[in-house]
What we know:
Layout (H helix, E strand, L loop, with lengths): L6 H10 L2 H6 L5 E2 L5 E3 L11 E4 L4 E4 L5 E3 H9 L3 H12 L19 H19 L6 H9 L4 H7 L2 E3 L5 H8 L4 H5 L4 E4 L2 E4 L4 E7 L5 E8 L9 E3 L12 E2 L1 H11 L1 E5 L2 H9 L5 E4 L6 H11 L7 E7 L2 H13 L6 E7 L5 H8 L1 H9 L2 E2 H10 L7 H16 L7 H12 L3 H14 L6 H5 L39 H15 L7 H7 L6 H13 L7 H11 L5 H9 L7 H33 L6 H24 L1
Parallel strand pairs: 13-14, 13-15, 15-16
Antiparallel strand pairs: 1-2, 2-3, 3-4, 4-5, 6-9, 7-8, 9-10, 10-11, 12-14, 16-17
Amino acid sequence: MAGLIKREDIDEVRQRTDIKEVVDGYVTLKGAGLGSYKGLCPFHDERSPSFTVRPQVGRYHCFGCGEDGDVISFVQKLDHTSFHEAVEKLAARIGYELRYEDGGTGPSREEVGKRQRLLDAHKIADEFFRAQLLTAGAAEGRKFLQQRGFDRAAADHFGVGYAPQGWDALLKHLRGRGFTDPELKLTGMFSEGNRGIYDRFRGRLIWPIRDIAGDTIGFGARKLYEDDQGPKYLNTPETTLYKKSQVLYGIDLAKRNIAKDRQLVVVEGYTDVMACHLAGIPTAVATCGTAFAADHIKIARRLLSDDGTGGEVIFTFDGDAAGQKAALRAFEEDQRFVAQTYVAVEPTGADPCDLRQTRGDAAVRDLISSRRPLFEFAIRATLRRHNLDTVEGRVAALRESAPVVAQIRDAGLRPGYARELAGWLGMPIEDVTRAVAAAAKRGAPGAQGAGAQGSGSAGYNPAPGSGQNVPGVAALPPSGVLPSFHRPDPRDPVASMERQALEVALQEPAMLGGAAWERFVTARFATPAYQAIHDAIRATAPGFSGDAVQWVEALRQEVPEPLQPLVSELAVVPLPANTAEAVQKYCRDILARLFELQITRIKADKLGQLQRLDASAHPEEFQQLNRELMMLEMERRSLRSDA
Length: 643
């Protein structure tokens, strides 16, 4: 029977795994000082990056919501797995063979987490479908691709496959790989009848739908034969893996370019994504049978680093009524973005795949470059619903379009579009301006826009002068996280210096070698929370030979539980230095300041003793105190000269 994973193997997986590489699969990270990276937090909705990763110590910490952890907890939370499953996934990622307590060899097939078994089944099915595309029976599928301008290389790149005609080709294949029928029922790849389960996808072209990490979690299937009575496109139904409102087709291929180019292009179908990528628009993705909505926006914003410093989201829709309706639905979600949103509509109704077939790659690129602001499209679409040749029609159009103008986030653009609207309506600018102002005052849907959502910091309200996100003086976690300790005042120079010294001790423990260690362990910390962490360092350091990742984890286990988030925070806050030499100098300076403060405190104590002492009655003690004071002063001056 499988036992627990050995503790030393868990430590080894944690140490060997590059946390930045793992986090990069979910969050766009940018450099934030030497050895530190920042991005938008995947655990809460925010506009300014406060999610910090420090690979050297193997930890992440969000200075907005307080979420923190190591690479194992990150995988647990983002992939919704157990600790056991997260360790196994990371071990497999680096090719490390885990050992288990009591001679176990890991979970049996029945004990493996359902999610991983589902992922395994989808991976095997993906490979099966791709292999089938090369068989004689898939001629119609290959013909479909060729007619739309997709060669074999394109099919391979996007993983396109073929589901054979018949009822049980995939079923037999997966049963042969050890999957049970109860497991297969959970995949969404099979339907169930009176005689049991059978293949859901039959005689269809297949596209694998992958999550942001690149794991196949579902499939989209296109009808090829006239006698197929099913819908034109058939997708995997909702499963524990596949939630269509949270999935974007092509996100695994597009994520790097979305982050690099600060652009996201939303198209309507699988072949449109393929056409865009092949035409030089590698930022294209598509929804899977549903509108682009709030959960999709969360994914997009993290990849775009949607923090108000640029970026664009471009929706492409057909020029027909359905396309216009979809564009207006997108406009309703526009206020969730900081990035500018646009719409690109092909007047003839051609989608990107059609354009590439008939007019080439350049036509696809031209379509995207012809984008118009989404709110302009929404205004014009509103006007088209009214007869502008009549007074009544113009008044009705103004009443309906004024709230649209009022929703424009950029206050500088709003007057300009009010003037444009006046021209389109043929009405005095004063009338239109009053109507827009009245709509804004009434609170047009979404009129507050981005500002209404604030920073998305989940109730975290740093105290004035807290120095949030300032290296060395970042605020403690939200009130209540440290119930047994008072929140240090960041304006207190002593507390600030003690915090900086602990940052050095956690991030650069090598700086505490030799005499520096002796000075550090005898230091007194005035701030209770920092003193508790100092005590943990004194208790943990002797005999410790692990690396920086294990060092921080060991300290977290040593401090009282309420202080564990603070340890993570101190371990990841960027040190204010841009080179290795500058880091060394900064650390020496900070430790020198700490040691000098300790010397000052000791001197003050001894001066007090000296003042209370009767020199004539205790001459030897009087001389000894003077010698000690002289030695302390020499040590203090030495620290200054070394720094």
